[in-house]
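Let's practice the habit of predicting before peeking. Look at the sequence and jot down your guess about where helices and strands might fall. Then scroll down.
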Amino acid sequence: MGALDHGRTTSGRPSVVLVVLAALVLVLSSCGGDAETDAGRDPLLWPYPADSIWNHPRGDAARLVPFALDPRASTLSAEEDVIIAEPDAEGRDVVSTTAGWQPGASRCNEATGEVLVEDLPIPEDWYTDPGYRGKTPNQAAAIVMPDMTLVETQPLHVCEDGTAVSQEAQPAWQGSSLLTGATAEEPGSGAHGGSGMTAFGGTIRVGEWVPGGEIPHAVKMTVDATTLSSFAGGFRWPATNADLYADDPVRGYQGSVPAARMGSLLTLPPWFQMDKIETEPARILAEALMEHGAYVVDDTGWSTVGLSVEWGPNGRVTDEFEQEWGFPMTGHIGNVGGEQLQFLEDLKLMYSVMHVVDDNGPDAVGGAGDPMAPFAPPLAGA
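Done guessing? Here is the structure:
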């Protein structure tokens, strides 16, 4: 009361200086795609509350159980999650396809014409077919609705003629909020069928895995399901299920570490020596694994380790990775050379000392102890 209003002249109109500053802020805020600005964290780029399961750091006293990974067919593969985060795009229907995961079938050519999900905001000029990796990728998809909730479906393809097709869109996968979801009490479900976990949370986004970048959240990993344990149904919190074939004696979960099940949170142990990592992209990943960890969300179907990376109208991480680092993200350690070989050797070193955070749960997200990294900044408008 009685203090001068430094934002106004004596006539009551805003000062010229403040008008110029306001205009500058407006211009700056419209540029770039940074996940964090002075206004707060953009939920389309860095979603969920700070204490969500995806943003919660690992505890420094977490109970860890060794679970070494040793992929033989490919050292690293890409689990491409389709992220469509353009809630203002014009809506279009997704129609059903019967192709599923049959190698000889075309998901686009097997469309039935029956509407699976109505009126989803999918940009007109973007599609995934042709161009996806492998014959039958999982392609779990998350589409952001105007109210900032998610519709998830699998496997989503947007055909060359603009038709969007998919096969499953279970009711349990729908409605999680980017603003309030993925909490310890309600971790949410989604289109990763092997675990019932989301296609959105934990996906490495465009702009994160680049020189000078960081992955400031938990990530998602897919592994050969035969290395997982069938103990207690083959899954654990926050997964809601395991693969239907988990107890199959040939194809099912045959691992000997009961803690390592679908939904497990994997991490690097505190004694891991970061200075052993030679390449920057591996170091960025190692820091994410040490500070937040990786949730196991699906079966790779072969002997490899996959990382969930974004593919959508905002870009494709596999393309960005090769452009920024000068070599492909994926490959087998025996078939490459140069800096890619060193990168994959770094990953192999990390795999050899992976551990399960065995006390990760709703009462101790990330395990016991003090957080190993700062919590995420507030969401914009929070």
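How did you do? The helical segments are 16-29, 280-291, 317-325, 338-351.
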